[in-house]
Write a structure and sequence with these properties.
The protein is of the alpha/beta class. Helix content is 43%, strand content 16%. Strands 8-1-10-19-18-17-16-15-14-11-12-13 form a twelve-stranded mixed sheet, with helices on both faces. Strands 4-3-2-5-6-7-9 form a seven-stranded parallel sheet, with helices on both faces.
Length: 506
Amino acid sequence: MEYIVTAKEMKIYDSYTIEEIGIPSLLLMERAALQMADVLSEHIGKGTKVIIFAGTGNNGGDALAVGRILAERGAWVTFYMPGNEEHASCETARQISIIRNLGYSILSEFKEAEYDIVIDGLFGIGLSRNITGEYEKAVQKINDFKKKGAMVAAVDIPSGIHADSGAVMGCCVEADITVTFEYGKAGHYFYPGRIKRGGLFVRDIGITDRGFEKKLPSYFSFQADEIKTFLPMRDPAGNKGTFGKVLLVAGSVNMAGAAILCGRSILRCGAGMVRIVTPKENRMILQEIFPEAMLYTYEKEIDVEKIEELTAWSDVVVAGPGLSKGREAKELMAQILKQGKLPMVIDADGLNLIAENEDLKKAVKAYERGKIVMTPHPGEFVRLSGISMEQYKSDRRSELVKLAGEFGCMIVGKDAVTLAVSPDSDCVYMNLTGNDGMATAGSGDVLAGVIGGLWAQKPSFETACLGIMLHSAAGDRAAIKKSRYGITASDIIDEICQILAEEHNL
């Protein structure tokens, strides 16, 4: 597990390490500079031309220290500080003094020359307003060097990228690599910051996790090698009932594909049985294409007693893929929610029905807390929450936490960077894998099935997060084989099997 922090949280952990543990800030700065110099070492040779763009804050001090270390290792380094040196922080003022004691000079006026590497230390994670004036010109100079073929390396975060949102603050440096310290910052992973930072290196400099006592990080994520750790255990003596029975309420007339994709995903993730509730028009195609599934088909009227019987049979319900928003679909959702306690995954039209019907909303809110996972994409999320798309985009994390608390549900906010939140915790799961090739029909149906199949064996927030990671990691593997242009939902299902079989010997 890794933690991802905001600028405010990083400041808390930094201060805790310095003030309460007693590790000097200048020592942390020196460690940071050494780590970045080591990352750059393969690009540095004797006579490599490097220019340092240093601000007056501690980010500038880090950059100056990096430049000093590279100069001592044989690089030809130019130090440039566009701001007023008198405004330098204590640590940066000390770095200025060290550099001059070693016989190097720091330019206050820019001089054109050719460079191999440009180090961006203008602004760090504390930037809170748009870049203007001389600093805007400095950012442009850095980007011009990049266009000419120089490698741009950012200290902590590219100048101009908001550390929490990844937004561009007026203008920004477009880095080839970014070296950050101790924890990744949220702005490294949200777009467009994720593109602007280039390759990301997270390096340890000795900031203690004990600062979590003051404030837990806003985000956490799983690593690919943790899949086996969080997967539900298999009982060697188990049977199909042991591994969970899933009731899948999915499909409508001319929409059988969603039920097939979701149902296959459920079984591929280890559930023992799946039973699909779907219109009678889908019976033949499902029996031909998906013989492993049991079926209950309906015509115009829903048999309430039968639905009660089916929910009593099941361990988990997955509802919504391809369901439509017709009368029968609404009635099915009402009946399934009525039992109030089965672990449940709601996706697609299941979410749209809830958004449009107050009685269904009330049923969700009355459901046993933490037993429902909702998986909305941005459009479904704004319909559920009643906010605008602008509000959603401005602070996704807060809106997810708010809706989870209001509904008492786990929320998986599908997006370019998927977030998941539990109703009982402010620490949000951030998914770091996946690619744009997964923006394809049926991909969401597969995700609902993956979470449902895993939940049939072990319903928990961590298991839901594992499902997100497993789904997107499979998408990354599919992109390698099929290209991001050619991924289909079925490819993702196939790669899930390969991940479980090959990478984890399961």
